[in-house]
Specification:
Helix content is 30%, strand content 21%. The protein is α+β, with helices and mostly antiparallel strands.
């Protein structure tokens, strides 16, 4: 039996997650959680809304950039006499090692009128404002998911670059074509037939790690 959410249920559950997510301090790992009502000039029915997680940071495992920088420096080569009086040698080591590109990301969870399930849209940009390519996004997802390739996850078979349903701008999305079937099987296997208190959270706990979201403790500590 497939899984689905009505638009009303999605709106209610998403706003519940936002209220609970705000209880924790915003970090570059948990992000800042907000609920945005869709304005009249946005595409789609006015009662639509979306859950936004902003302020995320990804650290790319960019092999090309690492090769250009050369081999990793020997920590013994750091000389404390080259530092200013207020600089900490240990902190400098961390900075020198952390040369991978930093990417800012924003994620939108939107209800799909076609699939009747939530869909995760996201955008990721380097510090210079350049958007990541599909190849870079797939590599980042592989790194953040611990080496698992997206096509083997089952729930999300692919990433697409398509028009955001509300903003009319290009966004990547985790394709939802398998969501209904896979979530239905998972929920059936994990419970006693009764749905979890927040089905959207169950789905998000699977999607979030792929895009660098660490769920706030306030979401995981209570199912109410």
């Amino acid at each position: 039996m497939g899984w689905s959410l009505s638009q009303a249920a999605f709106n209610e559950l998403a706003q519940d997650l936002v209220r609970r997510g705000r209880a924790d301090a915003c970090t570059d790992r948990t992000g800042h959680w907000t609920w945005r009502r869709v304005e009249e000039n946005d595409v789609g029915p006015r009662q639509d809304g979306m859950l936004i997680v902003s302020g995320l940071e990804w650290t790319l495992d960019d092999e090309d950039d690492l090769e250009e920088e050369g081999e990793e420096e020997d920590p013994a080569a750091l000389r404390t006499e080259d530092l200013d009086e207020d600089e900490d040698p240990a902190a400098l080591k961390i900075d020198r090692r952390r040369r991978r590109p930093i990417v800012t990301a924003e994620c939108h969870v939107v209800w799909s009128v076609i699939y009747n399930v939530p869909v995760l849209y996201f955008a990721a940009h380097r510090a210079d404002g350049m958007a990541l390519s599909l190849h870079e996004v797939l590599r980042a997802i592989e790194v953040m998911s611990g080496g698992q390739r997206l096509e083997t996850s089952g729930l999300f078979p692919s990433v697409l670059l398509e028009e955001h349903p509300h903003l009319q701008r290009p966004f990547f999305c985790l394709h939802p074509c398998n969501t209904s079937e896979v979530m239905g099987e998972l929920l059936l296997a994990s419970g006693n037939g009764a749905p979890p208190a927040n089905e959207l959270l169950s789905w998000l706990s699977l999607a979030a790690p792929l895009v660098g979201i660490h769920l706030p403790l306030s979401l995981l500590s209570s199912s109410k």
